[in-house]
Amino acid sequence: MNGQLIPGAPTGTTGRGRRRGGVRFQALATGALLLVLTACGGGGGGSADGAKGPQAQGAGKQENAASQAVVTILPKDGADSVATSGALKVTAQQGKLTTVTVADSKGTEVEGKIAADGTSWQPTAHLSAGTQYKVHAVAKDAEGRESAKDTTFTTLVPKNTFIGHYTPEDGSTVGVGMPVSINFTRGITDPEAVEKAIKVTAVPSVPIEGHWFGNDRLDFRPEQYWAAGTKVTVHLNLDGVEGRPGVYGKQKKTVTFTIGRRQVSTVDAGAKTMKVERDGKIVKTLPITAGAPSTTTYNGQMVISEKYKVTRMNGATVGFGGEYDIKDVPHAMRLSTSGTFVHGNYWAPKSTFGSQNVSHGCVGLADTRGAGDSSTPAAWFYDSSIIGDVVVVKNSKDKQIKPENGLNGWNMPWSEWIA
């Protein structure tokens, strides 16, 4: 068949030669096209049928899509004069909160809690007044993508404020009967908010509860006297607490004190003696004079709240008119707000002590004028006592002292104290 012409073919071209030429041209063209595709498409990882190519993935999730979670913070960014309670809230929609941080300009963080379902956060304490806060919140959507938001706001500056005058003093060592007693400069109408802002702890740990006397005094104590050596810490976080409408606390302070040795002295008004017990042992029995039949001494547990080496006692200041006005009363220690003291007595004959009750309701010990003799019974007891020591009076023909009369909450049963 060599040299045979193929009908319709151009002259000089055989059928075999054309087929070969055409196949070669097609192969070259295909190779050029692949080269172009490789150069433009990057040659990335697709199989011959294109099943894993970019076009096939068009219906799947987008790796760089924005989070669907939406974080909302109240108050709004830049807000001013914000309320110290109830205004701060953080929420998340189409996602769950993972991080919420609220801190003042000094970096002090506000305690708070994310709800169990992750959709909200609220502070567990009030905010301070006149303070700038920064809020940082992060939430994740169902795909684990994060959305964050940051805001800044400033709390109100109150026009009317209150503080609490507290006892005992910071750094002091006191007796086992000393409560934490706080007297507020304004009457409190929201005692729950104020009490929540005060935390009293002890080492070793013991349950401590607060009790209100009226609307301006709050005392804290354990069920029994403190154990000797206990370390007590009081956190006063009153700054920003709305104690009554429009009146805010302006106090933030930490107070610590230590309980010293255990001293409890028992006055027997019938026997006219006082037994001083220290750490479980009777160290001294002293003759005393208690209240006369017409001016008897209160019964009950009383705590020494003040000590005066020398003072003046005027009956007019405690409802006795001009019955007495005694200067230079030595070694006086206050047991009640109403004027009950244990003190030195230099004006009664020494034979009175241990035999007669002649006072206007105080407990008297033999002494000299001006507290100059350190050997007297009154001087010894004064030098042996500290603020917070307990003096128990029994067998007096009088009623029990009221728990709010002085630092004498021990006269209230624990069940009433915590009610």
Can you walk me through this structure?
Pathway: Cell wall biogenesis; peptidoglycan biosynthesis. With 419 residues, the chain is mainly β. It is 11% helix and 36% strand. The chain has 3 domains: 70-154, Immunoglobulin-like (Sandwich), CATH 2.60.40.3780; 160-259, Immunoglobulin-like, CATH 2.60.40; 263-417, L,D-transpeptidase catalytic domain-like (Beta Barrel). The chain has helices at residues 15-41, 191-196, 377-384, 414-417; strands at residues 70-74, 89-93, 96-104, 112-114, 120-123, 132-140, 146-154, 160-162, 164-167, 173-174, 180-184, 198-203, 209-213, 217-221, 231-237, 242-244, 247-249, 252-259, 263-268, 273-278, 281-287, 300-303, 306-314, 325-334, 341-345, 363-366, 390-394. The longest helix has 27 residues, at 15-41. It starts with 14 loop residues before the first helix and ends with a helix.
